[in-house]
Amino acid sequence: MKLKTSLLAGLAALALGAGAAAADQVKIGIAAEPYPPFASPDSAGNWVGWEVEVIDAVCKAAALDCVLTPVAWDGIIPSLTGKQIDAIMASMSITEERMQTIDFSNPYYNTPAVIVADKSLDIEATPASLAGKIIGVQASTIHQAYANAYFGDAEIRVYQTQDEANQDLYAGRIDATQADSIAMADFVATDAGQCCEIKGAVANDEAILGKGVGAGVRKGDDALREALNKGIAAILADGTHEAITARYFTAPIYSE
Amino acid sequence: MMRMIRPMLMPHRLVLIALAVALAVWCALTLRWDWLPKYLPLAMQGLWRTVWLLVASTVLGFLLAVPLGFAQAVGPWYLSTPARVFCTLIRGTPLLLQIWLLYYGLGSVFPQIDGIRDSVLWPYLRQAWPYALLALTLSFAGYEGEVMRGAFSGVNRGQLEAARAFGMPRFTLFRRIWLPQAINNVLPTLGGETILQLKATPLVATITVVEIFAVSSRVRQDTFVIYEPLLLLALVYMVIAGLIALAFRWLENRVPTRRPGN
Amino acid sequence: MEGLLDLLGLAKSAELLSLSPPGWGMNLLRGLGKSLQIAFGAFGFGLVIGLFGAYGKLYGGPVIRDLLAIYTTVVRAVPELVLILILYFVGTDLINQAAEALGYGRVEISGVAAGIWVLGVVQGAYSTEVLRGAILAVPQGQIEAARAFGMPPVMLMRRVTIPAMLSFALPGLANLWLIATKDTALLAVVGFSELTLETRQAASSTRAYFTFFLAAGALYLMVTLMSSALFQLLERRSRRGQPSLKGAGR
């Protein structure tokens, strides 16, 4: 009768898992891979970081009942269009390319993209200086798109998470990585990051690097987009955004 | 040839084939394939890397599996125990974990080793493919070592005794009698094992090796086209698996065997 | 000096792996629980598919048999990782579209359920083959005898075929269960927080890659060894009263 019990268990698990959702809950998709200091799980299994607090504040200001839903970064846009989540708030930059598939709210932070490399290497954040070097970038990011467009003379390695690219930078397997300036400032302050330093910001190309980080929603989901816009505007106006930022960073990370 | 065609002409199969063709045409016409020309060169490179990894890891893994199987089958305890432990470890843990352990685990100790960046090995240690090849090879050796153990034990004792009676030296005995018979024993399963190995190769995409799976992910990331690259990828793997099956059937037919009972 | 370093290294690992919050041990165990839950569900779901599949392959009409042949061939030729991605995207999409067409609104699909669905479909193909072989191994006379007594088909299956085939199916099913536990690791790539992803999160947060990957490996190994022992026991039980198969060829 072992067989029968396991069959029943399998069916029960399916039935339970596929239950109907609470209708008004908004599922905010975040990347399942750690992205400190914006969003990463702590050892108790809770998600913490600047962006997690901002999500919380935005939802509160917009009176939305939000639940964080970790999704693989690589599949986060398909998850949104496939309705597994309702919004993406995972440090996703607002780019033309992505706008063809999804809509974005107004930005809630914007930071430049920088090149980080080993201290001993004499590298600048220019295509000429990076030619022949090995550059690591995270998959599905503006940095990958930028590196493909500008650093064609370098070898580009694609990682699933920025953390893994950082790890390989520390191990010396790559010469440099391009990533968000805040995330990198956080990395070079860690023990492993002592190897490396920020070599400078890359030349801006708004078509690729986008207009800051916003919340992604499904095309046509204007109600949610408006609600998120209202929430973002509210926390920017009442100082909540500033207060959260002050707890994590020394300088503001939002400008008009 | 007729033997292969005739079963296809049964009425219900004709309908199924017509449906399949219709589905293929529908896929070709209605789904998005405009990305294909741009990514074709990259896809060919990826395909080549997949095949290369598959062939290299299978051959090296098999060479490693022979001593592993032999040690387990007839070796003294100080050889058979490590071999058995190795096979259990490989077969008892997910390959994905083994790959990450090798790549990121080893990577995390590099900075503590002085002078490693000046060593001759460094250009290889920096690349991802040596780790991928190593992990795939060890995995194949682990699974195939277990199969080879059975194959060595299954060799007819009488033949071994006859060879010994002729005064054949031990190594010749191994090379001329034991090994060929054991390989003969595993040949029918080797094709299946190779296909399983093919199915393991996409895991190395997670450590930045750009093989065919990584190329399809790249297409998905660049263009947000989800299903088309995946469907094409599935088709590519099916074709490779089919070719492997055909190749091993051909190989098996070339080896003369006397099956029990005929 | 070296011994001291060794001791210190181990002390650090023990601290990282401890079960209460500064350590990440609890996260790994939570991941292990999820992995086992998905593996168990997928194994069960696979068995359901396998049972229908085996019956379809043995007693179904030509069309069903051909369709099942396509299903098992495709699943056995395409890498699990690719199937998982396809099934993950397609499955949830289809369910939502179906639910919307029926006017139910969106259906929530939990990570565990999606994992069970995805791995279950893969397992089903292998189960089909294992169970088909096992049913074929049941002595035909037993089934004919039951038919002669006028047993209805479902009762025949429940009372005769399934119990009789179980001992033949167990080695194959044991193997499938082990594959199910290891395949849950692949779900890490789609972002399910099972053991491998929890391990990766812990490892990259603490940079102690070796410690955590080895610990996770030990957990997987423990599951493998324990289930192997359990299946051996089950097999021995189900073989009671049957002649020993030892030495009866491979």
UniProtKB/TrEMBL annotation, chain A:
InterPro entries documented for this protein: Solute-binding_3/MltF_N
Signal peptide extent: 1-23
SUPFAM superfamilies: Periplasmic binding protein-like II
Origin superkingdom: Bacteria
Gene3D superfamilies (alphabetical): Periplasmic binding protein-like II
Domain Solute-binding protein family 3/N-terminal: 25-252
Keywords: Signal
Coiled-coil features, chain-numbered ranges: none
UniProt cross-references to PANTHER family, sorted A to Z: ARGININE-BINDING EXTRACELLULAR PROTEIN ARTP, MEMBRANE-BOUND LYTIC MUREIN TRANSGLYCOSYLASE F
Name by which UniProt lists this protein: Transporter substrate-binding domain-containing protein
Protein species of origin: Ruegeria sp. PrR005
UniProtKB/TrEMBL annotation, chain C:
Residue spans crossing the bilayer: 36-55, 67-89, 109-126, 160-180, 208-231
Location relative to the cell: Cell inner membrane; Cell membrane
Principal location class: membrane
Topology in membrane: Multi-pass membrane protein
InterPro entries: AA_ABC_transptr_permease_3TM, ABC_transp_permease_HisMQ, MetI-like, MetI-like_sf
Family in the record: Belongs to the binding-protein-dependent transport system permease family. HisMQ subfamily.
Listed name of the protein: ABC transporter permease subunit
Species the sequence originates in: Ruegeria sp. PrR005
Source species taxonomy: Bacteria, Pseudomonadati, Pseudomonadota, Alphaproteobacteria, Rhodobacterales
